[in-house]
Every structure is written in structure tokens, then in C-alpha cells.
User: What shape does this take?
Amino acid sequence: PEGAMQADLLVIGGGPGGYTAAFRAADLGRQVVLVDRGETLGGVCLNVGCIPSKALLHVAKVIEDAADMGAHGLSFGAPQVDLDGIRGYKAGVVGRLTGGLAALARRRKVQVVRGTARFTGPHTVAVEGQTIAFAQAVVATGSEPFRLPFLPDDPRIMDSTGALDLADVPARLLVLGGGIIGLEMAQVYHALGSRVTVVEMTDQIIPGADRDIVAPLMARIAARYDRILLSTRVTGVTPGAEGLRVAFDGPDGPQDAVFDRVLAAVGRRPNGAEVDPGAAGVAVDDRGFIPVDRQMRTNLAHIFAIGDVVGQPMLAHKAVHEGKVAAEAACGHKTAFDARVIPAVAYTDPEVAWAGLTETQARAQGIAVRKGAFPWAASGRALSMGRDAGVTKLLFDPDTGRVLGAGICGPNAGELIAEAVLAIEMGAVAEDLSLTIHPHPTLSETLGLAAEVFEGTVTDL
Ligand code: FAD
Assistant: This one.
């Protein structure tokens, strides 16, 4: 249309998927417009997700580590918590990163438009009344917290964004959902002084990970939190003057209990339908996900979709890689999203990290695996940190010794899993890990040793 802003490539959504796609396409010579409805670039991840949660988790870890040292001859006394100071620290971290993105966009001459975009045709969107015409587009609109329909409207009921605001430290907190996001926020509030109850519908916390990998985390938080209710549903929440009365339905929980705040962390839903994909002719499934092929193309060859809006796992590093593929495919490169594994990490204490095949999946799919598991009680570094309750587990093809999956629980598991991810991507076998000299004494040795356990050269653990 005449007078409309023109873009070679229009990117809707400035999260990790969207900004990656925008920057890559600009580097490849395209004139790029990036639209986001938020005040700053970075999407959920930088503004209300990965980064602020990790800043708060760092604070929690320092508090807990300091308390743990009491058993090793070093006492600090009770922490003096200044919520304004902690919020300022978090905002500073987020601000540096989102500001950095704005500078990177300027340097690449990526035009950033603020507002909500909706398709008005196969080559146009409307953003707050303004039309932008595009040759190609990338939908990177991410996801939002799923809202349980029976929860009443009450300011004491928060989603993850509200929890990250850290308005106060409630005396009694219920975390609804024992997945990664719920457990990370539980950790923050517990360290700051809340009494925490976690309620999870399935029979284990972090249902995607193997039970043995989650066990050290479960043991530690079970000893610290008021209650962890498994196989339990919340059936209602009634606001009252004394707090939020929550009704439970489960085998061993109370029938109900009162909390000062409830954090609902029961999953996220994709922002697929909100862009009015139908106006462009882009297909979206009934859950709001936009189906794509391996080049991240939707049913229309000139419109791509990436990140949380295209499906699980809803993780920033997946969105980033998909963003790069989409930009390169849009620029005519021969490329495809071809990751063998996408690692997942819970940044709890201890951390839980896994990648590739899990034992549960192997059993369900009838895939033969043999494992090599190395208990951290036999790691000098873990013992010297006062943290012997960890495990490094590798799953191998019994015939070829190929690494098929990995699960690690313990401090720094999120960093350690990277070696296993590389091993799986490279098609490494057990010997590749066991013959690699790992520095001593490090937690990384447990990967080589897990391979040796599989080979039978380390026994008697
Ligand atoms: P998003 O980051 O969701 O960005 C989408 C952007 O599009 C948003 O800015 C949104 O406002 C904008 N938008 C949506 N619709 C429109 C529209 N119509 N017009 C204009 N703009 C629009 N992942 C990890 O890998 N590691 C972690 O540690 C981690 N921690 C997390 C902690 C929390 C509390 C939460 C909530 C999530 C966490 N995640 C983590 C998940 C991670 O944040 C997401 O996977 C990631 O942000 C997805 O990126 P994306 O580019 O798909 O979209």
C-alpha cells in the first residue's frame, strides 16, 4: 500500500527468537523491521523470564550457601534482606541486556517499531493503525502464562511475572505447579523467608526428567519446604480476609489450607492466534501453535514462525537457533533446524539438567539403553563443596556405546550438561568421554567417570 512502511523482512516479537532472526537477516543485507509490543526488546526471556529469574536465584543461592556453611565452621548470622536492593539488582541486570539489544539493533539499522502487530493480508500487518508491508515475515510472538480458569481474580494470586516483581515475601506461599518455573520461584521465596508448599498434579516434580535425576533436588526441598504435595490437584481457591483458602484433592495432602499468596505456574500457552494469522492465511492449530517445517516455514513459503509459538520445548536457546535458521532460510540459504537434542535445565539448588533420551522415554519407546551413573558422593570436588548428593547419569546404546542421553543433578548441572550435549551432537561413544582428560578436581570429571562406569572400568561405587 502507498505510504506504508516497507520491510524486506518483518519480524513480529522481539524475544530471543525474534531478535536473533532480525539481527541475522540484517547481517545478511536485508532491510528489517522488528515489531514488539513491550517497552524494551528481549521478550519474555530478558524482561520477565530467564534473566530476572536467574538474578533472583543468584541471591537465593548466596543466602542458602551462607546458611549451609554453618555446618562447616563458618557462620554469618541472619541475612539482612533489602527487597528494594534486590529488585534494583535484578532490574540492573535486565536493563544492561535489553539496552544492549537496542544498541545492537541500531548498529544493524534494524528498525524497531513499538506496538501490537496483526496481519491484515498475506503481505501486510497493522501496528497501532500503521500499515507495514513486507516481502517476508517471521512470527516470533512467544507465549504467555496459562491461566487456570477456576482461579479467582485476586491480587494475591500471581503468575511468574508477578512473582518476579517480588512485591513482598509472603509468610505462606503456595506454588501451584512443580515444574521448572514454579520450583525456581519457590526457591527464591523460600530463601527470602517464605514458608513454601508446592502442589503438583503428576507423581513427581519436574515431570519431564527422570525420577533418579530429580531425587537429590526432591530430597533437599522436601526437608526445607512445608509440604510437597504430589499427585494432587487444586480444586478451588477462595479469597478471604485471613488469606487464600486452597482446596486440594490428593492422596496425602490436607483437604485445604490457607496461604498469603499463590503462584500459578502450570505451563504456558502460545501467542499464535493473537496475530490474526488467518488474515494472512497462516495456519494455526487449535492450541494456538503455528505449525512449521524444518526451515521454520509456516504453510506459506514467505512467512516463518519460531520459538515458543511453534511448540515445545519452550526454551530460549531453542528459539535462538530457530531464529537463525528462519533468517538464513528467508535469505535463500540451504539451512534447516536439525538439533539432535535440546537441553533443559532447572536452575534450582541443586540444579537439574538433562538432554536427549531419558530412561522413561527409552522404556516407553522400547529403546534398549544401558546407563553409567556416577554418584557425586565419590567426587572429591562435590565433597569439598559440601554437596555430595548429586548424580551424573549417561545413557548409552548398549551395542555401539553411543551416548543417547544425559541427566545431571547437582550444583552447576546446567553448565555440566553442555559437554553431554556436544557428545550427543557429535555422535560420541563412551570411550570419547572416558579417554578425554577432565581437569581434577572438577565436577566435569563425573561425566568421564559415568562413561567409565558404563565401560566397567570404574566399579565398587
Ligand atoms: P518471547 O520471549 O515470548 O517473546 C515474544 C515477544 O513478542 C514478547 O516481547 C511479546 O510481547 C511480543 N509479542 C507477542 N505478540 C505480539 C504482537 N502481536 N505484536 C507485537 N509483539 C508481540 N528459557 C530458557 O531457555 N532458560 C530459562 O532459564 C528460562 N527461564 C524462564 C523463566 C520464566 C519465569 C519464564 C516465564 C520463562 C523462562 N524461559 C526460560 C522460557 C523463555 O523465556 C522462552 O522460551 C523464550 O522467551 C521464548 O522466546 P520467543 O522468542 O519465542 O518469545
